[in-house]
Amino acid sequence: MSTTNLETAVGNQPLKRVVIDPVTRVEGHGKVTLLLDEDNRVQQARLHIVEFRGFEKFIQGRPYWEVPIVVQRLCGICPVSHQLAAGKAIDQIVGAQLSPAATKLRRLLHWGQVLQSHALHFFHLASPDLLFGFDSEVQKRNIFGVIAEHPTVALEGVQIRRYGQEIIKAISGKKIHGVVVMPGGMNKAMKPEEVKTLAAGIGEIVGFCVKAVALAKRLYQEHRNRHEAFGRIESPFLGLIGPDGELELYDGGIRVKEADGSRFVDQYPCNDYMHLVREQVKNWSYMKFPYLIDKGPEYGWYRVGPLARLNNCDRITTPLAEAERVGFLAAHQGLPQGALAYHWARMIEALHCAEAIREMLGDPDLMSDDLVRIGERHFEGIGVIEAPRGTLFHHYEVNDEGLVTRANLIVSTTSNNQAMNESIRRVAIDRLNGANLTPELLNEIEVAIRAYDPCLSCATHAVGRMPLVVELEAADGTRVGAISRDEAGTIAIG
Amino acid sequence: MSDTRKITVATCSLAGCFGCHMSFLDIDERIVALVDKVSFGRTPLTDIHTLHACDIGLVEGGLCNDENVHVVRHFRQQCKILVAVGACAINGGVPAMRNRYGLAECLEESYLYGVGVADPQIPSDPELPLLLNQVHPIQDAVKVDYFLTGCPPPAEAFLELLTAVLENRAPQMSYALRHFD
Ligand code: SF4
After folding, report:
1. What domains lie within chain A, and their CATH numbers?
2. pLDDT of residue A27
3. How many CB pairs lie under 8 A apart between chains A and B?
């Protein structure tokens, strides 16, 4: 059965409604609804993003130099990516070509961001499913359970994240929502002692990342058939790419590869993104559905993030991560497509970030005070960056007074919106159809979402959560049953 | 939990960015010692979805829809000490910047008139909670016992708060722990 057929139920047979609310260990408010027929066959499955913040409106009227600092509050997991994407857009407004020192500081800052976010995503949020099993005991299926049963894994994850946060703090002044990106550059350099301390610690972090890749690979390979098929969908992949086809997180042109590996576009200029993608609104979600204009909304949706980047690039510039990339691709026939392949790809990128940080920390430009350049004034700026979870677009227009008149943001999660919906439909078809719906089975839906994103907040432009009660209702709204789970993990059906 | 020396903590993220939760995780490896004394109930970090009576409720984010109001009231009922964590919970924060515009204007900009919007329409499916006209701080809906300032409050502020409750004393927030950014 095609997954897309499950977007909207057809016919007017009475259906039961099942809700997973909230989706846990996913930041931001997502909710999944399923409609089932009388044989418990899934007729409709949707991931709804239920909150709305309105950044695109309220940033209007604010001065452009404020934007990077305000918009990072979209997301506490990847604030640096928002600060930098907005910063790149604002650089265009002041007509700046950045100095080498400012570019290097920004790259280092961003590697720190991707490193810490990947560690958080894998260790704190996803590893409990992978280490204990999707259907393991609810009480231990969390980071505290991992600390208790796999303390070395947990602590190394915590230390990788901490190191990324330390980089961010050294450059931007704070671990979360620091202030450093300014129009045309950066507002401060690093101090020699900061570079020295960080350089002393990076060797160990590279080592932890090597182990993290091995762990992600082992967990995937151990359950190979299941992991490869789980939530598997096929789609094009979109992301930034370096001038020589290398993996690139901070800058570059856009490459889109078809599911079969052929190129749809390459080195597409970021400033023309509005001719490449458009966003469809659907009545049932506050998160929009981007698609490639030439392919149309039905066939043009694509995926972004670690898997997209590894599938798109021709090579990685750092040796350990490059060797892992080659192994990752060799382990698959054709491009890896399964949702859980994201985790393996994510740890390879974490390793790349650690290696890139190690190299950059030897560069004296990090301490240079040639930090800001200004050029000819423009009235529009577009900043595109690879945030941890995928390509992030920031687009601003300003008036003569420097006040924002228009803003458009396409965050990573939004680009994966259709993909997350298709993956949960895949799980619904493969695992839930006709089955007795237990909370363990329903967790599998969440496992699919977590593969893409722990970070729905960016997309909704907000967050919120409720206890898990899965309600079963007849189509006329009468309650036919419920599954609930209390703090002790006891499941009640009835 | 059977261990009576432990205090129980629940957390939630309403109209916030999750940065306050991230800042709590910035206690890094000190979390290992903490879980000896603190057990976590309902929080986005676990799969425990039901909120039961607990000692401390940490609320990140303000109120932007009817569901947020429902959740914060439930937290108030169940938590002995309710803490507003961060600028968003305390005064609405950045999401409250939408208050200078009408809700309709914000929705129209995102879903009708934005750059590259196809099928313009304002999402209105019954599965979506009702948005509030304005974003509110949580004390507009419930009594708050303690405020942790900052955007986000530093990790050490979370530790001091929990330690103070464990030691049955008032928290001592030094100057460095009181951010107003
Ligand atoms: S107070 Fe700051 S860090 Fe906390 S949720 Fe609000 S914006 Fe995020």
Report:
1. 7-52+433-493 (no CATH), 97-233+337-373 (1.10.645.10)
2. 52
3. 246
